Structures are given as C-alpha cells and as structure tokens.
Amino acid sequence: VCGIRPAYNRDGKTYSTCGLTCAAEYQSGGSRVPNGRDPTPDVINILCVICNDRLCFRRGPDIFLTCGMACLKSLCSGGGDRLKCSYCHRKPKLTSSDHCGPTCRSRSRVACLMCRCRPKLGKYHFCGRACKKLAMETAPKILEVPQNHDTWDMVATKFKKAWKPTMGEPVPQIKHVYKIVESSVFLKPYDTYKKKVGNERFCYHGMPRDCQLGNTGRTTLCSSRSCPLCNILKTSFNTNLGSPEGGFGAAIYTSSAANKFYNYSQPGGAILLNKVALGRVYNASNFREVTSLPAGYNSVVFDRDNGRLNETIVYHNDAIRPVFLLVF
Ligand SMILES: [Zn+2]
Ligand SMILES: [Zn+2]
Ligand SMILES: [Zn+2]
Ligand SMILES: [Zn+2]
Ligand SMILES: [Zn+2]
C-alpha cells in the first residue's frame, strides 16, 4: 500500500501489506488479508467485525473493531452479527443477555454512545475523534443512552433529586434517555458565553411534541415547523419564542425543579435537561418584578414555593444548550 516497506511476513505467510497501519488505512478501508487462505485464530481477532475481510484499524496501542469509517458507520447503526456480544462483537452472547459475560457487560456501562464497543473518553460521550465525527456528520440528532449505562444512572439520579412535587406526586418513570447531538455551529457560542459569565447549572425545560421523537425506535427529527421539541433541537433555544407576556418577559424559561416543566410537557411531551450558564443571578421574589435582564446581571431566578416551582430565566440564546432528552 505505502510502496515503502516490504510486505509483512509471519509464520511463513506473506501478507499483502507491510503492517497493520497500511493494511488498515482508516478512510480507505485498507486491504484484504490473508489472500485466499483460511485466517488463523489470531488473525480472526484483528479482522474487522463488520466486513470480516480487512484488518482492524489501529492507532498506536489502540485497536478498533472495524477496518475504517464505512464499517464503523455500519457498526454504529446496529450492524454486526446479532448473535455476538454487543460490546466485543467477537464472542457469542450468553443466553438472555446482550453480552458474552460480566466483563463486557460492565464495560458497556461506560461505552461510547456512538459505537457502543469502546470506552468513552472520561466526561465525553464518545470514544474518540472517529465516533465524534460520525455523530456530528448527521447532527442535529438524538442518541439513545442504554438503560444499563452509567450516563442513564447519572441523568435519572439528577431527575429524582430535582423532583420537588408540590402535592407529593411520585417521580414519573423515565422510559428513554437520549444524548442530544447539536450542530457544531451551536457548540462554540455557548462555550464562549459560559467562559465569559460562568456559573453553569443543569435545568429542565419541558414541551409538547408534534411527533413521536424519543419513543421506542423513533430517533428521526420531524419536519413540522411547529413541533416545539424538534425545533429546539434544530435551532437550539431562542428568546424570540418566549412570549413577552411571560412572568419575566421575553426570555428562555427553565427550572431547577424537574416537576415544574413535567406538568407542561404532559400528556405526551418530553423534557430536556439543559446546561445553562447563569453568570450573575438576579434573585426575584415576584412575577413581573423584572421583565427584561436587569443591568449588571446575566440571569433571573425566582425560587417560587421554596424552589418547588423554581423559575430560572436567561435572556441570551447562547446561555443555554439542550444536553439530554427524557421521554416518559
Ligand atoms: Zn505499507
Ligand atoms: Zn470492515
Ligand atoms: Zn463481549
Ligand atoms: Zn465510539
Ligand atoms: Zn417533532
């Protein structure tokens, strides 16, 4: 492939490339091994789990399960042998399990949300650049967080803690959690704004849906111009959508209390868990105490009913981004 190094030779077998780097050229999909022979067991372990034909892509000590972007894309959209473990894709599934054993099951708890077969990088949701690129290519979109994933637990725990019902209503059962992948044009302006004002919090916002987005198997945004959910995912939040008649003027309304917007979203709606950069907070104690952002502040908070009906309001489009979608 490279035309520089001689073809790799091992145990008397000659391969068509000099080594794994050339053999597994990421974008091109690499070359085939071993030509016309039955692969040995250790070759099988480095063969792409999708095409079973080319060597897996490698970067340093990092071995991927696929040969290149095309096969990775297929893996991410549910490709691969359904009888094999959904994490390692090599060993057979145990009866009534998605995995080959406890090791893969526990690794899947911290897996990349895109390929689901490699560890996610720390606080990020993806395993690396390839999966991030794939995810961003088709943004805006939602990626399901599996119920046995650490991120599901984190979101569900946050939701339970933020559930402060005024009449003792029980915490509703979350059916699906999705990570929201927004268009890249929305990422930078938020980060810049957050750096400027600081004080990032997680707040809820609920809305109805014109569609079934987020229900089992429904992950494609609808094209309705009036669908409140899909429109936020496409254009992010917009203060223009807030009514000037709102309790604090034309703004973006959220709440630190999960119950507040849950009521607005039902029946059939959804909740967004958002990151909000509050900066310097103006604490209000009555509706319409202010109807625009007071000078010297970045947000307005009204801790109505001891926070059980908390109102957290920002007046800047770049002060908020949706992070997770919750469906009940
Ligand atoms: Zn080469
Ligand atoms: Zn492949
Ligand atoms: Zn496995
Ligand atoms: Zn990945
Ligand atoms: Zn929709």
UniProtKB/TrEMBL annotation:
<protein>
    <recommendedName>
        <fullName>PARP catalytic domain-containing protein</fullName>
    </recommendedName>
</protein>
